[in-house]
Amino acid sequence: MFPSILIVDDEPTILQSLSGLLTDEGFEVITANNGYEALKIIDAEAPDLVLLDVWMPGIDGIETLKEIKKSTATLPVIIITGHGNVETAVKATKLGAFDLIEKPLNIDKVIVAINNALNFRRLEEENRYLRKKTIEKHSISGGSNPVQALKMQIATVAPTESWVLIKGENGTGKELVARTIHQLSPRAESPMIDVNCAAIPETLIESELFGHEKGAIAGSSVKKRGKFELAHTGTIFLDEIGDMSLATQAKILRVLDEKKFQRVGGGRILTTDVRVIAATNKDLEGEIENGRFREDLYYRLNVVPIEVPPLRDRAEDIPSLTEIFLAEAAASNREKRKTITSDAIDILTKHAWPGNVRELKNLVERLAIMVQNDAITAKDLPANLSDSKATGGELFSIEDLDKARVAFETEYILKKLAGHDNDVEKTAAAIGVASDYIQTLIAERKA
Ligand SMILES: Nc1ncnc2c1ncn2[C@@H]1O[C@H](COP(=O)(O)OP(=O)(O)OP(=O)(O)O)[C@@H](O)[C@H]1O
């Protein structure tokens, strides 16, 4: 299909000569001799590009451009102006004209401008398509109540400018939550820049965050822009915030407060407009008590707290997540999608998943590659998953109900403790028993 170009001009000679030349170049050409007609044609025939003369009787080119941008903002418009008309040029650019060409027209320049505009439009469309695909690929799956509640929280906070602190165990999907908030926010057209606070060595953190000038850092002869500069007008995602040193916390706090910073070795003060989303798997309140985290930074970041629940608290999502990961694995390995038997799903559902969704995803990916048959069965699951099978088996081999009850309770409390970083108070609150009860159980096990 040839790109279609609408030429709008009140001079019949220009319409005629331009359409002849552009038709020879392989474009499909439509013409209009005034603004009203142009708007009607755009509505009915959706051309790929408009060449629009400024001086026309009735609504002039500038007014027509305004109307076009109101109804079809992505349609590229190239304005044809009289020689040296700077005022019109400025107006048209402000209104979103893609390019301006001066009369008398040079056909080579017209063709270059048309091709540039069409290429730009194609890239924009590709970009939109890829963004949509990314959102679909990285969406938060799960129909359990905790996940539904999480999605509601995300939908509420995303369109605002509020800062968010995402809490949750390893692999629960904190980064996915951050990405979803960014993608649903008005900043989605700008980037979300990740900073893994635990992974950057202390000596490099300042240049990573704020950038550095040429020669300011040993071993680097080029200027580098930092994360706060790259995230300008977008979102900065401070992951593993609980692992930052106190010195770095002070530096981050300053830039978050002042929204200004300097590159290492640079004198110029740079301003940054960022939305901050932070994440942690640590109990930051405990870290504050132990003097490892600044209280002022905590309150600055914790404007909207979001808790991502561990997978064991939403076990009903495990079957659907497994199916999704099997489908993803099949697509990326270009293989037939494997099925999984119900007894295998049963074992997966009972497992405690200390590594949460990441652990489940990795396991499913591995099984999809390693299992030779079309169906994954209970036999194919690794031994560490059989702890829940074994526990079940052992429990059933206990003849006395009271003893079985104690064995189950011990196993249950220990698993819950592990899931709350061995924090007795938190576990007690979560499962609804007194903390003394858990302390006694631990003491008895040690004895
Ligand atoms: N609800 C979900 N639906 C689909 N995929 C998910 C879901 N939650 C997590 N995942 C996937 O699990 C993996 C781990 O998620 P993510 O990296 O977001 O976890 P995290 O909490 O940030 O981990 P860490 O604490 O280790 O940084 C990713 O591949 C992510 O796409």
UniProtKB/TrEMBL annotation:
Ranges of residues in domain Response regulatory: 4-118
Pfam (any one): Response_reg
SUPFAM superfamilies: CheY-like, P-loop containing nucleoside triphosphate hydrolases
Top-rank lineage group of the source organism: Bacteria
Alphabetical UniProt keywords: ATP-binding, DNA-binding, Nucleotide-binding, Phosphoprotein, Transcription, Transcription regulation, Two-component regulatory system
Residues recorded as bearing 4-aspartylphosphate in the entry: D53
CDD domains the record matches: AAA, REC_NtrX-like
GO MF annotation list: ATP binding; DNA binding
Full protein name: Sigma-54-dependent Fis family transcriptional regulator
